[in-house]
Amino acid sequence: MWQSPDGVDPSSINAFRIAGRLAVSDGRDGGSASFVWVQRGGRFEFELRQPVSQKTWRLSGDNRGARLEGGEGGTRHAGSAEALLSDVLGWHVPVAALRDWVRGLPHDGTPMESAERDGDGRLHRFSQDGWQVAYTAWREDGALPVRIRARQANYSVRLNIQDWAVARE
Predict the structure, then answer these.
(1) Taking a C-beta distance cutoff of 8 angstroms, is the pair 27, 154 a contact?
(2) Cα 139 from chain centre
(3) CA 39, CA 61: separation in Å to the nearest integer?
(4) C-alpha 122, offset from chain centre
(5) Does the keyword Hydrolase apply (predicted)?
(6) SS3 for 119?
(7) How far apart are CA 125 and CA 59, in angstroms?
(8) Backbone phi, then psi, for 23, in 5-degree steps?
(9) CB 3 within 8 A of CB 168
(10) How confident is the model over 78-123, as pLDDT tens digits?
(11) 51 in Cβ contact with 59 (< 8 Å)
(12) What pTM did the predictor assign?
């Protein structure tokens, strides 16, 4: 089902599986977790596991809404993944935009306020929706990012992607 993304055009990737580490902060408090993210078109499944407590959350959804399992109080639903993570975990994470950002692309349908490219023509830094996004490392083949940092006011999100796979066509 999954294969290495070597040589794949990032804009053509509709389904992917990535795994790694996520860290978030609001300037005072923060948290980190290992994650596995499976994206199939507009549908996503995102599993988070905190390292110390081994607490696990499963976030899933699509453009109609999102569901979070594993939080205190049982399963929760909301109109967006962003709302759920904020309400339940206190994390400000732009999940919809990250779907594009993890592929090294700006969020579809939203203009970039500024952009800086590296020597290979890839986005290096850009601003979008009030977020400043930077790619600090890429896969060896250079096509997809493996380290992403995003900041908005006091909020920061860092992803360190250790495993990239795309759906086999």
Answers:
(1) yes
(2) 16
(3) 10
(4) 18
(5) no
(6) coil
(7) 28
(8) -130, 135
(9) yes
(10) 999 999 988 887 888 999 999 999 999 999 889 999 999 999 999 9
(11) no
(12) 0.92
How far apart CA 15 and CA 13 sit, in angstroms, is 6
Q: Which residue type does 41 have?
A: G
- Provide the 10 A C-beta neighbour count for residue 137: 10
Sorted by where each starts, the structural domains of the chain and their CATH numbers stand as: 2-167 (2.50.20.10)
17, two tokens: 């599986």
Burial of 2 per CB tally in 10 Å (0-12, 13-18, 19+): middle
Question: Two tokens at 5?
Answer: 């993304």
Q: What is the spatial distance between Cα 165 and Cα 93, in angstroms, rounded to a whole number? A: 22
What does DSSP say about strands 56-62 and 43-49: parallel, antiparallel, or unpaired? antiparallel
- Contact between residue 108 and residue 88 where contact means Cβ atoms under 8 Å apart: no
